[in-house]
Amino acid sequence: MSEKPADYSLTNGFESKTPFLIGVAGGTASGKSTVCQKIMEKLGQQQKEQTERRVVCISQDSFYRSLTPSERVRAERGQFNFDHPDAFDDKKLLTILKEILAGKKVEVPEYDYVTNSISNRSHTIYPADVVLIEGILVFYFPEVRDLFHMKLFVDTDSDTRLARRVPRDIMERGRDLEQVLNQYMNFVKPAFEEFCLPTKKFADVIIPRGADNLVAIDLIVHHIWDIMYKKRPRVNGCNGFDEDGR
Ligand code: CTP
Questions:
Q1: Would you list the DSSP string of the chain?
Q2: Going by CA atoms, what residue is nearest to atom 17 of ligand 1?
Q3: Residues 150-172: pLDDT tens digits?
Q4: 61, 77, 84: residue to mutate for ligand 1 pocket, most atoms within 8 A of CB
């Protein structure tokens, strides 16, 4: 499926307990998080305790870099470009992903969109079989992109994305309408066209209509399940998934 499917069973098979890393890219409010949630639900993971989850999801937003005092002031006015690759700490993302691939437990900070900074809360990500990383620019940085075993691009039209983003930013991210629209026109839209959209070509699977596309999500889940079920040695007749094999 990606450039390295043949290698997977040899070098990245579950026998070596290397997680299967899936990148999920797409424009703002395209439904990346919902696609990830649905994949996790269908793999029967949502109802499990964090420590028992075999499929986990991380957001690229946890890897926004800290702002300088002057950038902080601009951010509060909606005049900072959070959609430019420079807004991210890609080295930190790379380090954490390498640790995950090495089977280590990692701490991933939570991002606070109201203060435009990393909060003091974090999530512990325990070693898992499948790790989903979602974000607008997860395919932008070549070293990060090359780590993914599977790349998905959530392709939702821009009107739908804007219609979702406006109420979300006002209700959940403490913004006002004028600020949201200015930020969208000045930064979000141009950066989407310059940095995010060109990364669609790296995707193995493009998901039109995003999370509404249950057929695509089902196909992806079956593929993940096939990899996990067929490649993982069964222990006591059990492969670790629920009874229906999910
Ligand atoms: N952003 C922001 N303020 C910040 C940090 C990020 O407005 N302090 C915005 C950026 O403009 C960027 C967006 O957050 O466009 C990235 O988050 P997005 O991809 O929209 O959120 P998800 O919930 O991950 O996406 P989806 O709706 O696709 O699940």
A1: --S-HHHHHHHS-GGGT--EEEEEEESTTSSHHHHHHHHHHHTT-TTS-GGG-SEEEEEGGGGBPPPPHHHHHHHHTT-S-TTSGGGB-HHHHHHHHHHHHTT--EEEEEEETTTTEEEEEEEEE---SEEEEE-TTTTTSHHHHTT-SEEEEEE--HHHHHHHHHHHHHHHS---HHHHHHHIIIIIHHHIIIIIGGGGGG-SEEEETGGG-HHHHHHHHHHHHHHHHHHSPPBTTB-SS-TT--
A2: 28
A3: 999 999 999 999 999 999 999 99
A4: 61
